[in-house]
Amino acid sequence: MTLAQALFAPRAVALVGASGDAGKNSARPLRFLRKHGYAGRIVPVNAARAEVLGERAWPSLAEAPGEIDHAFIMTPGDSVERAIEECGSRGIPVATIFSDGFADSGAEGAARERRLVARARALGVRVLGPNSMGVVDVPGRLALTVNAVLEMDGPQSGTTSFVSQSGTMLGTVLSRGAARGLGFSKLVSVGNESDLGVAELVELLAADPATRVILLFLETVRDGAALARAARAAHAAGKPAAVYKLGRSRLGAALARSHTGALAGEDAALDAYFRDCGMVRVDQLETLIEIAPLLAGRTPPDLSRPARVAVVTTTGGGAASVVDRLGVSGIETFAPDARSPIVDLTMKATPAQYTKALDDLLASPGCDGVLAVVGSSAQFHPQLAVEPIVRAKRGAKPLAAFFTPHAEASLALLANSGVPAFRTPESCADALAAFFAWRAPRKTAGGSAEWPRDLPKRGRLDEAQALRLFASLGVPVVESEIARSPAYEHALAYPVAAKVLSPEIAHKTEAGAVRLDIPNRAAFDREVKAMLARHPGRDMLVQKMESGLAEAIVGYRDDPLVGPIVLVGAGGVLAEIYRDFALSVAPVSEEEAMAMIDKVKGFAVMRGYRNLPRGDLQALARAVAAVSRLALVAGRRVAEAEINPLMVKGDGAVAVDAFVALKE
Amino acid sequence: MTLAQALFAPRAVALVGASGDAGKNSARPLRFLRKHGYAGRIVPVNAARAEVLGERAWPSLAEAPGEIDHAFIMTPGDSVERAIEECGSRGIPVATIFSDGFADSGAEGAARERRLVARARALGVRVLGPNSMGVVDVPGRLALTVNAVLEMDGPQSGTTSFVSQSGTMLGTVLSRGAARGLGFSKLVSVGNESDLGVAELVELLAADPATRVILLFLETVRDGAALARAARAAHAAGKPAAVYKLGRSRLGAALARSHTGALAGEDAALDAYFRDCGMVRVDQLETLIEIAPLLAGRTPPDLSRPARVAVVTTTGGGAASVVDRLGVSGIETFAPDARSPIVDLTMKATPAQYTKALDDLLASPGCDGVLAVVGSSAQFHPQLAVEPIVRAKRGAKPLAAFFTPHAEASLALLANSGVPAFRTPESCADALAAFFAWRAPRKTAGGSAEWPRDLPKRGRLDEAQALRLFASLGVPVVESEIARSPAYEHALAYPVAAKVLSPEIAHKTEAGAVRLDIPNRAAFDREVKAMLARHPGRDMLVQKMESGLAEAIVGYRDDPLVGPIVLVGAGGVLAEIYRDFALSVAPVSEEEAMAMIDKVKGFAVMRGYRNLPRGDLQALARAVAAVSRLALVAGRRVAEAEINPLMVKGDGAVAVDAFVALKE
Question: Do A151 and B580 touch (CB under 8 A)?
Fold first, then answer.
């Protein structure tokens, strides 16, 4: 019996704490298993009664007869621990725990959860939950859940599986999908992920022959490296994975119990992370439900130019509402007649002509996908423009549909034919944008980076050390010298900059610890004296004055969720005020760094904007790639690092200010 | 018989071109009028047959018997003109023209349409269309349309009316609304708006006792001033108006046949315009359908601080998906327990406790609205968390709901109770954001602005004239003098700037027509000579060199769609690269200008950011208000005007570069 079998296809399930009151939540698993025709043995366990909803019940797991593959635990308090002990002694390989009061309820609960899982591991019992709403396998008729959604009649079988950090969303996806004919295979609510987490479930689904597409609803990422591995395994198995992740706003992120972001913003880091592991990130919840047929059997388009979609329509206004959104996402339209961005067949085409128009576009090299928009006829006259879509010759290039009216029968018709169909112009455009942004998992450069021997391995580096670290990675750094107390001798030519040398001062300008453009020795002595008044006894870092065509910021962070991230942004106040930066999982190649630089709007001033002189963006790319190699330092010692600014010149670039914080 | 009666409640309708083939589009109006129980007389007009679908038909309008209030014209080609003639001679006050081939099909059709409407005016016939899908009055059982949506059984009566520039969208809104219990009153497809346009229809609906909320689907704005008046009339009548307008992207704008925008971007100008006329602009199509109950009976909240919404939920994940979006829109959450942004009642509250939680929050001064999020129970157990919403004590503060599952019965239950309910987290957040951004129509300052006598009234002003115009409005301008050919004498102290004086040079820097920081007379002579090589014989504008803490751009445009608009943005390249500007309908007061300035991110550097010196933003606001008074010049002579840059100092501000283009 494999883990997947015990989880999704148990021959017998024990329902620990099954209620005899049909109206109670804890009566639902028994009711639902029966209702949906579970063929295995159902073993209610109830300390207080010998019968539950007409089924013989047992006072404890220990006393229940026969081999049991999966225990569903609903009892409160300490009885959970007792049930896990009994699972261990009986050899029940998987326990799903619905009971709450563990990590979901504070520090004490979290400690209790750690003890529980440690004991389960020792006993050889795998745990889903606690606080899991359960597991559903639609084709296998396993409705092992308390989610009310299973009150529905016969949900449709399909090949889309779903893993959710929200128990409610299991019901949402199943219910909304069923209402429009979208079928599902396996649905799992992971709860607190004390043992079985999202990553391991994705791995199981990647290996599951009944699953073609994997959907994820995430509140957070608990093990970024493991999920990245699982996503790559899914890609290798030809199973696209789409993810909806909470945390677009700080408010949402706070609610999803995630960590707060630094300048980079965790959501932008997650965007980079999902893209790098080959996952499709959708923006709208509706898109998560609707996108599976668009992905099933397809591979990442890996486009390096804007996508072009041909829009065929029987309604101008309906098409425009999608095209408008596609434009916002940078997607272009394609039409054989260049006078209009769409192919308008309003009341002009027979069904056969309509199918032919779709076939011609699907065969045309001019577009990357075809979208059919259907107006009011989709609701009452599907023969006019919906059925012709089903008859189109489909291939690798996606054919999708958007219906303007309420047209669930037509949506179901397309769902049954495997044609992606969308309810709203927004989710339609979101799905197409997500599809065309989809990339194969990135092959990251290997190798390693040396840690300079004379640098400390903990705490914060002072600026001279930080510059030395960046230089060791290959970043050109400003000519500098340490002028030591009390004489502050140095051999640099004027003008120079002088900075108090201390790892403790984070914001030198605010702390009065920087002087720029010092013209001569007398001025130098004056400025040093002034700084010493606030920072007595400190050495000074003296630097040659540098200037460039524009300033850039290059940053590195070992993100607690997704690991090493590199950032490049417009310098000065722009990165911060306008959030004008690009991120990638580190390390990156020079070419990848250049692609990041292309996304930074403020660098327009170095790309020939308004005839301004061009900057050496290749030198900037080299610096970004060099900084990103901090991810290759053994032990990933650096927590955060930043060059701000890196002066970009017409020829070359130079780091003039550096900050590095090591891990504790 | 008023226009509204003839349009929406005709006692008899003539169907010109009614087909006897029930499968044809032109048979639909007759079928639909019968199906939905129209009580008036139906008069089919068909040149080829004496009977249509069992109804006596007449060969021409002229021959049809009895008084007819409204003719619906479906015949092709020249017969439309003939039908209008007959409407005139018979005294039929309103003709709705479904036939296309007019302004919808190019210049020739547009000319034909102008002739048609001129003739209709002369005859006293009001025209809806051409290219109109028709008119529906649900409570009045008038289904005078070819839109297939009327195949539906008994759409629900309500108090929401809808005016659409897309015929398809009439069906979309009615069909999607009906599927979830939202009722409608009047729905109108305006087609080409050759005579009866959106503005006049909004005015009619503002005066319509059966209408409480007005919805608009717009592809363009054809008469901005008239729509603004109509929107104000609707506001005065206590009827909120919500609008969905295509054109968020250039692609969508192109498709919607609108004009291309200048720097300001027409969509941003439309945002300002809709807000100023007191309309609610929604972002998503679904929101347009769902928002009416949120607006009905309410007035603009006119908040001057971020809105606070209390979110009560039975599902953490479901609530988070809305809260995340609310956060993106800058809406805050409110909860009595400050440890969580939401009020989570998951499986803990009885229905009575749930209602009480809602009542307490609705009564609390801590929040501006309450949102109830309901999970899987909304589908099968409405008694748990849906019915308690209906029982809450509602008042001026909105109470809205979002259901995570497919739960149309629960949506209908709330619709029937007048509680706004949403299908997706995105439309829910969009609706709340639009509601809280809603403002009463702005009272614009009256008055007038003088046109300096010595300035031309047409064409483009040269820079000296442009600066004089701005100075006349009260903008401080740089000290300037014209140095005339051939001696180029001037009395300004050095350093100075020198510019070729010519109304023809739009981009002086690119044209080599500017020199800055000229230190003395010898350098001045040299620079002037160099500029004269490219611009022979020109006079020079000599200006004192000015500097400031930051640069701003102040612009004015008489927008072809929405009229005079004033813009303030970050100077230099920032406004353009980052689209960092704020817009308002002109004129604005100094206080309103300050509110605009608050929205420009780049001005952070003058608001004390990182301890940088503060700029005189009040002086900037005075300049913005002054420039906006161009809208008060008799004849609104100015097409476009711009100060770029306006130098903002620690004390005061000064315009150093000016451009003004007058109308032709």
Answer: no
